[in-house]
Write a structure and sequence with these properties.
31% of the residues lie in helices and 25% in strands. With 347 residues, it is an alpha/beta fold. Strand 15 and strand 16 (286-287) form a beta hairpin. The chain starts with 5 loop residues before the first strand and ends with a strand.
Length: 347
Amino acid sequence: MTDKTIRVGFVGAGANSRKHHIPKLCAQPGVELAAVANRTKASGEQAAKEFGIARVYGDWRELVRAPDIDAVCIGTWPNTHCEITRAVLEQGKHVLCEARMAMNVAEARSMFEAARRAPQLVKQLVPAPNTLEVDSTLQKVLTEGYVGEVLAVEIQANQGRFVDTEEPLHWRQDAVLSGLNVMTMGIWYEALMRWLGPARRVNALTKIAVPRRKDASGAWQEVRVPDHVEILATLDRGAVAHMRFSTVTALAPPSEVWIFGTEGTLRLESDARRLSGGRRGDKALSEIPIPAERRIGWRVEEEFINAIRGKEKVSRTTFEDGVRYMEFTEAVWKSAAGGQAVDVAEL
């Protein structure tokens, strides 16, 4: 498909699709915005008018079955990712699926197995975006032994503000829609795997600040997705990690990562996209320059189209990596529920 026009359909033209996927796929040479199917046909028609999308379907299944569509971008909530992804692959179409991958490990593995049965198709998950500009440099200094043996990792991911008990239920707080996914936990764990590999064992505590909230209809719903998570984890390469994810730590410092080793220390400030470090004998940390060519950043749509054309392979993010972050996510839930350490299942 090197020269052929690639016709893309969109199932769920939500916020991230409007911000990233639709305009950035449109900007790729030889890409046509062929069709859209939203939760309602009216919202689909609005998106089609706004972005110049050719056709609108009232049912996503019709879009997936359309013979003139080559690839499908899935921008729905996690509760539909598995069903739609499997249907897309069964119809012989490439798929770009929004993160998080699925509701739970079982769905993620089902998607992965469907992907394995279609090796000729491109399968990509939208990657964790918060460290993309820093990842290449961070991986390089770790590989070169800047910190020596990694001993401990601290991740503090704060979206903190004071609790609003009157705020309605957000879809990310609704386990029916988001499954086991919690705040930015999967995003940060995906980034951690890029640098240091997966976790093998976790011990977790969680806190739900407001047990009940009203949904969009005004009905009271039980909140099952935590507002605060504390995790101790053993990583595959022997280091110990402490991770905190929270939406209730008001006035806390911005999100950051510390990596402590036998010979050095690294600090990542994700909001500033800045990396600093210090080695044995240094009095303080100093900034580690990141060359412009290493600040790769967001190129999801370009990578997807290039992979379809056979110009590169998907690296951010593969279905295998998606299964791994769902394995971690489920292990955290099991540990918190059971009050004991839990091994992270392996693919």
